[in-house]
Design a protein that fits this description.
With about 350 residues, this protein is α+β, with helices and mostly antiparallel strands. The protein binds zinc ion.
Length: about 350
Amino acid sequence: MSDLSNPKSWLLYALLACSLALNVVMLLNRTPSDEANEAPAVSAEIETAPAGTGAVTAAAAPDSAEDAAAQPAAAQPEPDSSPIAGWAILHAKVEQSLARTFQLAAGEDGDALASVFTRLFVWDLDLRRDMQAGDSVAVVWRKGADGLPEIAAGSLQSKRLGRTLTAYRWQAPDDRFPSFWHLDGTEAPLRLRDSPIENYEQITSLLKDRPTHKGMDFKTPVGTEVSAPLAGTVTRANWNWSANGNCVEIRYDDGVIAKFLHLSENRVAEGQRVSAGQLIALSGNTGHTTAPHLHYQLDRNDKTVDPLEYHGTLRRALKADQIAALQRDVADFERALDAPAG
Ligand SMILES: [Zn+2]
């Protein structure tokens, strides 16, 4: 190893840092932030929208286009100033919107960071409507191997709620993926009752996020089990493959039509009866999609229904010993969020 007191070593480190930064920039240019967080299955919704609704034009434009165009060239985060190795800490007052706030605070990573951050608190607050001047955010984050932001902890001080929401990334012992948890041991994201999928990393899109997107997206690796939330009859399979990929449509017994898109494998055939909880498919990344996920969509009389309202939601809670482990594991991040802006 080279000696840090040697000026030549510093030059080497500086060059290395520059080339790393350049790589990250190139990576981001190759993978626009709206792809990973929002792009899944856009054209599937075009295909399944009723004719003549104008959904084609609307859906073709990413809804972050406006924000992206106005994006300023702000400074990069400075991980070196962080007391937690490898993690950047950001404190900011909310400016206009969360997207704008993160654009100003995190530059070119702002849009992607805002998307990930939004997923922590969208369950408790309408982040488009309820943000107020004087609200503030804090986040501990870093750029993941894929160039996209990873959040370890986030907080949102909300005047509307009159309190501060916080969430910490942590993997419960029985879970296949980390999730986000409040310090009291309740999970930050809500879960769907009778969910078509139990094991997923994250819900990346809700109906209320984007008016042009007609379903919920569950980010999950290819091959994850998908089951029928309710009893019904398989009405279609693998229609409009170029957009939907392998797909299954089930008419629940109450007449609601459920669509499961981008599957790797179908396990049911048209006309087949399925019972609630029955395995119907494995999730995938087929059709028009940019990342492995399950698109789950409900329609009643050709009108889109929000799965959160239709199925209802639940909020998981950890057991006492797990809460103690959570609090111990995230203590450093808790201190980082609390530290005053500087
Ligand atoms: Zn989708």
